[in-house]
Design brief:
rod-shaped; single chain; mainly beta; 4-stranded antiparallel beta sheet
């Protein structure tokens, strides 16, 4: 009985001669044509044997030799051959997204519409790294990996698993996917104090730049203030009229895209406010 996972079952009619007290089982393969003894069975009526831990999709040929109480052996039986079950097909068409916020979506082609197949998903931090299983027996041909960060990079492989638990080979090369990276930070193009008002202008460097937040830190003499943060706004200019004489103010800009992903702060500029007194 073949087409079993990693095994072949032998069933035979007990020998008709009552002097037979057991059997020798021999096996050979197309690549190893010499007969090899693989087992001995005690008892004339013990008429079956399971040959296990075999290679997948391999043809095996068997024959039996009866043993007697007197120590004589019968002639070999007629040989029979069978084949073990093949591994399920390798997964093809694996793709991973590179532009989803804080997640990576994997998709692949179904390996078969005729048999019940599930999938195991593996992930690595590098192309040649150790791929660890992150999902077992998934029953769909797509999955979303919620990586929870911006610009997170992973490499993936997917295997198919049949109803017997046999798992296909992995793809030779992993597929790269990454979550959406942070937008590029703006560039401050103008900074000055005009009539007691700090004026900051900037340019966006990324089409994803949707709104902007201005960060301000300041110090006055020995007093160092904290960091202020404006509400998001679409304008490319900021005016700060709340300046104190002798105060030193540092400004930087953060861009925010449509998904709420923030860029790193831009390179900051520092302005010192010296109030001009009129005589």
């Amino acid at each position: 009985i073949g087409n079993l996972p990693e095994q072949i079952k032998l069933v035979f009619k007990p020998h008709g001669d009552f002097r037979v007290n057991g059997y020798i089982i021999q096996r050979r393969t197309p690549t190893k044509p010499d007969w090899e003894e693989i087992a001995q069975i005690d008892g004339r009526l013990n008429a079956e044997y399971i040959d296990a831990e075999l290679d997948h999709g391999q043809v095996y040929e068997y024959r039996l030799i009866g043993t007697t109480y007197e120590g004589y052996n019968t002639h070999p039986s007629k040989s029979v051959s069978e084949k073990t079950k093949k591994l399920p097909p390798i997964v093809r068409g694996l793709k991973a997204t590179t532009a989803m916020p804080k997640k990576i979506k994997l998709e692949w082609k179904s390996v078969s519409d005729d048999i019940n197949i599930n999938y195991n998903i593996y992930r690595s931090n590098s192309l040649e790294g150790n791929y660890k299983q992150v999902k077992e027996n998934w029953n769909q041909t797509s999955i979303v990996d919620n990586v929870g960060g911006d610009g997170v990079v992973y490499f993936y492989k997917v295997t198919s698993v049949d109803e017997y638990g046999l798992e296909s080979l992995m793809q030779e090369i992993g597929v790269k996917g990454n979550s959406l990276e942070k937008p590029l930070a703006p560039v401050i193009t103008y900074s000055a104090i005009e009539d007691g008002v700090a004026v900051i202008r900037w340019e966006k460097r990324d089409e994803r730049n949707d709104t902007f937040v201005v960060l301000r830190s300041y110090k006055t003499g020995v007093f160092k203030g904290g960091e202020d943060r404006t509400q998001p706004k679409p304008e490319l200019e900021h005016r700060d009229s709340g300046l104190q004489p002798g105060g030193e103010y540092t400004y930087s800009i953060i861009a925010i895209d449509e998904y709420g992903i923030e860029s790193d702060p831009s390179v900051g500029v520092t302005l010192k406010y010296q109030k001009v007194t009129q005589e």
